[in-house]
Amino acid sequence: MPEDEAAWVEQLKAGDEEAVRELVRSYGGALVRFLGGMTGGAAEAEDLAQEALIRLLEHAREFRGESSLKTYLFRIAHNLALNFLASAPRRHEVFPEEMPDQPSAAPAPGQQVQASEDAERLRSAMARLPPQQRAVVMLRIWQDLSFKEIASALSLAEGTAKAHYFFALRNMRRLMEAAP
Amino acid sequence: MTCQDALRHGLAGGPMPAEAREHVRACPACARELSALRAVESRLAGAAPPALLPVGLERRVLARVRRRRRFDWAAIPAAAALLTASALLTAWLLLSSAPPSSSPPAAWPQISAEESALPAVEDTTANLLQAYDSLNAPMGDVEPEEIQEVLSPTEQGGWNG
Q: Is residue B109 part of a domain?
């Protein structure tokens, strides 16, 4: 863990409000995007992101710095997403039309995403992946985590994370080819 | 090295091991597959939705943190008061239900001499011997009519028999 992150963690443990603000600003958006992809619902994604941040703050004293704060936070978020999917089995398959294009916040100028046909096909393919493969793809490509970090966040062996990634991309390729 | 191993190495990021690189070079199917999977990878990267911070998330998280902090401080004296009250109540209940003194009652219930007397040993022995004799009595002494009399009407053929 970098030195500045260690100092940040100490501030979080002490309940420093500025450190909490910094935590939310740094990872809130990324968490909502990840959880939106996992659950398929914008409202659920926001609720779970809030819960993940709160849980990290509640358990900050137990954080030993064996992983980065980001990895620790995504581990909490992933567990919350899996619990959510387990409690709502009908949502195991995320329907692409339910996946948020973006969080509910008003987009800043220039950040409006074009809902291209290609993006639709990609979302459609991704929504049909098993949750574990979906999580690995999002953490790898959208969060730019290494496979070591992904393995830590999802409590997997590094080789298993790589295998999930390979099968996820292969499944997506097939789904995209099969799409009309 | 299998095709799958070579492809996994090709997607793992960073430089491919020499063996995997050689496999992909010699296997046209793997080369095509790896190229297609890398294309999926880059299209996915381009299709990432923006990671925008939801309105009010910061405020909600801070509110929860503050509420929890207030609750924690308020909970300590409240819990201490509750514990003290329950301890006092338990002590009072124990004291009020206990007997006033541990000495025996002034007057024990009286038992009459007849009630306390045991049956005489001779009487008991005589009864046992009599019962033993009746068990050993020959069956020939009992007439069949006497047996019939002790059977119930059902055993004799029923109420209608």
A: no
Q: Does B41 touch chain A (CB under 8 A)?
A: yes
pTM of the model: 0.66
Task: Kindly state whether residue B82 falls inside one of the protein's structural domains.
Answer: no
Q: Is the dihedral of CA B156, B158, B160, B161 positive or negative?
A: negative
* B contacts of A15 (beta carbons < 8 Å): 65, 69
Q: Give yes or no for A139 touching B (CB within 8 A).
A: no
Chain B, residues 10-39, CB within 8 A of chain A, namely 11-13, 33, 36-37
Nearest to B53 among A28, A36, A142 (CB): A28
In B120-159, the residues whose Cβ lies within 8 Å of chain A are none
Confidence of residue B155 (pLDDT cuts 50, 70, 90): very low
Q: For residue A46, give the nearest of B57, B65, B68 by CB distance.
A: B57
Number of alpha helices (DSSP H) and beta strands (DSSP E) in chain A? 8, 0
Query: Which residues lie closer than 8 Å to A131 by C-beta, 6 or more apart?
Result: A38, A81, A82, A85, A92
Domains and CATH numbers, chain A: 1-92 (1.10.1740.10), 115-180 (1.10.10.10)
pLDDT exceeds 80 at position B25: yes
Model confidence over B77-106: pLDDT tens digits? 677 788 888 888 888 888 887 665 555 555
Q: Which residue in this structure is represented by tokens 């070079």?
A: B25
